[in-house]
Amino acid sequence: MKAAVVKRVGDKFEIETVQIAKPEGREVLVEVKASGLCHTDLHFASHEFGVPMPAVFGHEVAGVVVEVGPQVREFAVGDHVVACLIQYCGHCESCLAGRTYQCKHPEETVRSADQSSRLTLEGQPLTSVFGTAGFAEKTLVHENQLAKVPNSIPFPQACVLGCGTVTGAGAAINTAAVKPGDTVAVIGIGGVGLNVISGAKLAGATRIIAIDVQPGKFDLAKKFGATDVIDSSTVDPVEQVVALTKGGVDHAFEVVGLKQTSEQALRMTRVGGGAYLIGVHKPNSRIEISVMEEFIASQRRIQGVLMGSSNIKHDIPMYAELYLQGKLNLDDLISQEINISEINEAYEELKHGKIARSVITSF
Length: 363
Hints:
Blueprint: E1 2-6, E2 14-17, E3 19-20, E4 27-36, H1 39-46, E5 55-56, E6 60-68, E7 80-83, H2 93-96, E8 119-121, E9 124-128, E10 138-142, E11 146-148, H3 155-175, E12 183-187, H4 191-203, E13 207-212, H5 218-224, E14 228-231, H6 237-245, E15 249-254, H7 259-267, E16 269-277, H8 291-296, E17 301-304, H9 312-324, E18 336-339, H10 343-351, E19 358-362
Parallel strand pairs: 5-9, 12-13, 12-15, 13-14, 15-16, 16-17, 18-19
Antiparallel strand pairs: 1-2, 1-5, 3-8, 4-6, 4-10, 4-19, 6-7, 7-11, 8-9
Helix pairs in contact: 3-4, 3-9
């Protein structure tokens, strides 16, 4: 089958013919119908995060089950499913408390060192990054990383549920617990940022301020529910947010992954407000805060967010249903559908913030 392979950190994606194993244990073989190009995959492929190379990335995956392992309990051939990079065992303390995104034994969802690799290239093992490896015609995934969705949701829209939506909307709904009447700022309005706006709107926020350096994104942000927009390339976004809200927002979400924007997120919150860091930073990144002024005296909080604090078995089907009811905008997230051979060009466009999401729908 065809797959996009990264052979060394920093290399381009190369389209190769790779081999995929038959499902064992609780593994599910999925024919990939749509695979979204999330910036996280590019970030991990471009920087040294300890991912063994060569590797197959891709974690926003929607497809159809074509075969199941002998111990699979939830899925059957023909099911429509969405994959997610949250890897959880289901029996540790965190999982039993419902915090599967904090699982202590995520390694249980992948093959052990004494088992054969799920993917190989010319007889050599390939890393299935995040356990999903969705930049391929088929993927072999542990059933804990899959959620069933209605057959009526289109595959391109379904695939973004697995990361962009659970991460963005989940950050607003689960992590920050935005409530009716709250005020929200979102720094960075790419695919995940637009989903933060969607989640804040669903939760009842009355003011949602979208912040970006590219004014061309502002009309799209308003489609998702932004009430105000700020071009941070021309004005100080902290000053603008504080002025608009007469003191700062209840919740500020950073979806860029930069030191400057992370510090801005904290400073644009009100007394007692919260800043939520979603964007993936480079390894060993640091931020600076004034402990007394910006933390203790102002009673602010800052929290890292992983995958929107989501329980995918509950949240992905919920978001799918909200989409089908017309309450969650997924259609405008899909900027273009591409062939897998166009992956490098599409990532260049994403890198420069030109589009929300490209989705591989043909191989």
